[in-house]
Each structure stands twice: as structure tokens, then as C-alpha cells.
Design a protein that fits this description.
The protein has about 350 residues and is of the alpha/beta class. It has 17 helices and eleven strands.
């Protein structure tokens, strides 16, 4: 078992990463259904929480069906983080996560997220204040260091454990890398030698094969999937199947379209129209990937303003796809017919 405080989970976890404007309730439910062992909310500003900003408060909402679920918060002031942690705990998640890894300028540049890697004493005070403020387990997500010349994760990790962190997620890049370059997984075994709490690997887990290799090469207690889940929400199922059987299924066309429609509707329930329709557009590439005619459907959907019109277009595409498959029409013949 992997223990996050008093929370016991299966060994070698597969986790959905917290992603802004992606991991709302609708996406977290799908990830759990597909096999993610735990999911995380979008990251939430501690300052916004204590000021009761409506958009941030809404991100605190979780459902029983998505447990175990973590609320992730970020900020640069230990006292503010303490208050935000108390507010977050009242929302009823299974654990809290502190973001010490966000690399974007308007977060890290203000001393929050990965900016805390430049001030380890303040990071320690923040984690300790948060841990002391709540009864829930508190975990931390961070990076290797600010840049290649200042990698300090081997000093940071035991400090965070001493401050009370129940687990660590390490994005195996520096802040200066952002999402560029290659994640350096070699740091995970080194980190595991200096702490006794679970260590989760994040970075470049793009396929089921990547996850299998990450477990085999690093001994990580879990792998966290981020952007790959946007382009392939079935990746959690594929990882689990590969680990259990040595192979995995690709989703059928029917499964993709039905899941896409459900996800779209749920997303719009969470965000409302038209925002839900617009924000969902990032997901079409994943659901329609490598399907005959999928590129054209995606182009159409990018211009479609309402939920019902999007659903109608997807359902029409599925009927046409099924008809072509029943007739045995291949991609080349289909292109000729379309012309």
C-alpha cells in the first residue's frame, strides 16, 4: 500500500495531475472512471480563497464519485496559505496539495509556485503552517530546482518531509525548462533515498509504455499524468491494462464519441454556456485523433457555439462513420466519395 497520511491507496499509483482550466469535476470523473487512482483539482489561489472570489470557491466543489480527490492550493504567504487550507479542508477533499512547481511568470515571479524553490526557508514555513492548520494529509508538488545550475531537490525533499508533507510529486524538470526539454527521471531514485514518504513522478508520461518504464526504471510510488490525459483520456485504463496483462485496448469509435459528448455536457454543466463550449475545444483533438474525417469535424466544432449543435455534429459524424464502416469504405474511397 501507498500511504498518504492516514489515506491508504494501492501500490504504484496512477494519478491525474492538477491542470488549470482542465481538471474540473467533469474531467476528474472521467479520469477516475478510466482508472486514475487519485485526482487533483485545478490549482486555486490562496489569496483568492480568503477573499471569497466566486470563481476560486467554485473550484473547491468535489463529488463523492471522484474520491480520492485532492484540492491543490498555491500562494507565497504562509499565513494566507494557512487560512486557505482551512477553507479547503472544509470542502471535504481527501487530502490537500501545495503547488510549489508552477513555472509561469505571473505565479513563480511573485514568489509562489516554483518561485518558492528560490526561498527554501519560506517554502518550509508555508508547508509547516499548512500542515499544522488542518487534519487532512498535506502533499507537495514541486520541481528539481529553479534552473540547471541550482537544482536543490535533494535538500528540499527531506526539508518538506520534516515540515510534515505526507508525499511529494516531483516534476522532473527545472522551473527554467517549463515544459521544454526532457524530464530527468534519474532524480526519482535519488530523492527516494533521502525521504521515507511516497514520491510520485511527473513529466513525460505520455503513453502507457512510458508509465511502465517509469515504474521499472525509477521505483516511483506513483506516476502523474498531465497533458497526455488531455489528448488521450483513456490513458489511465491503458496503463492499468498494460501493467496487468502486457497489452491494452484502444477505445472504439463509439466509445470515443459517446465519452466526448458526455464530457462536453458535463463540462458545460460545470462552467455554463458559452464558456463551457469554448473551454472544451482543447479536448476534441484527443477524442477525434486518427479517426477518418476527424480533422474536419474538429474544424467544424471549433466554430460551433452551443452544446446542442456540438452534440448534433458529433452524433452525425458517428452515424456517418458507422455507415462507412458497414459498407467497408476505406479512407481513400471515402475521400473520393466526399469529392
Amino acid at each position: 500500500m501507498v500511504r498518504i497520511g492516514n489515506l491508504e491507496l494501492r501500490d504504484q499509483l496512477v494519478l491525474l495531475a492538477p491542470m488549470e482550466d482542465v481538471t474540473d469535476v467533469s474531467f476528474r470523473l472521467i479520469a477516475r472512471e478510466m482508472g486514475a487512482d487519485a485526482v487533483y483539482t485545478e490549482f486555486i489561489s490562496s489569496e483568492a480563497l480568503i477573499r471569497s472570489v466566486a470563481k476560486s470557491k467554485k473550484k473547491l466543489v468535489t463529488l463523492e464519485a471522484e474520491r480520492p480527490v485532492a484540492i491543490q492550493i498555491y500562494g507565497g504567504d504562509p499565513d494566507v496559505m494557512k487560512e486557505a487550507a482551512i477553507i479547503s479542508e472544509a470542502a471535504g477533499p481527501d487530502f490537500l496539495d501545495i503547488n510549489c512547481g508552477c513555472w509561469v511568470k505571473n505565479v513563480a515571479g511573485k514568489g509562489a509556485g516554483a518561485g518558492l524553490l528560490k526561498d527554501p526557508p519560506r517554502m518550509e514555513r508555508m508547508v509547516r503552517a499548512t500542515v499544522d492548520a488542518v487534519r487532512l494529509p498535506v502533499t507537495v508538488k514541486t520541481r528539481l530546482g529553479w534552473d540547471q545550475e541550482s537544482i536543490n531537490i535533494l535538500e528540499i525533499a527531506p526539508m518538506l518531509e520534516q515540515a510534515g508533507a505526507a508525499a511529494l510529486t516531483i516534476h522532473c524538470r527545472t522551473r527554467s525548462q517549463g515544459h521544454s526539454g526532457t524530464a530527468d527521471w534519474d532524480w526519482i531514485p535519488k530523492i527516494k533515498k533521502v525521504v521515507s514518504i511516497p514520491v510520485f513522478l511527473n513529466g513525460d508520461v505520455k503513453t502507457a509504455e512510458d508509465a511502465e518504464r517509469a515504474f521499472a526504471e525509477t521505483g516511483a510510488d506513483g506516476v502523474m499524468v498531465a497533458r497526455a490525459a488531455i489528448t488521450n483520456p483513456f490513458i489511465f485504463r491503458q496503463i492499468k491494462e498494460l501493467r496487468a496483462t502486457g497489452s491494452y485496448r484502444q477505445p472504439t469509435v463509439e466509445e470515443r464519441i459517446h465519452m466526448c459528448i458526455r464530457h462536453l455536457r458535463d463540462s458545460c454543466e460545470v462552467r455554463g454556456e458559452p464558456r463551457g463550449v469554448f473551454s472544451f475545444r482543447k479536448h476534441y483533438a484527443g477524442y477525434l485523433r486518427e479517426l477518418r474525417g476527424g480533422s474536419q469535424v474538429r474544424r467544424d466544432l471549433m466554430q460551433t457555439p452551443t452544446v446542442q449543435e456540438c452534440v448534433d455534429r458529433l452524433e452525425l459524424f458517428l452515424r456517418e462513420y458507422q455507415m462507412m464502416s458497414e459498407l467497408g469504405v476505406g479512407a481513400e474511397e471515402e475521400a473520393i466519395m466526399a469529392a
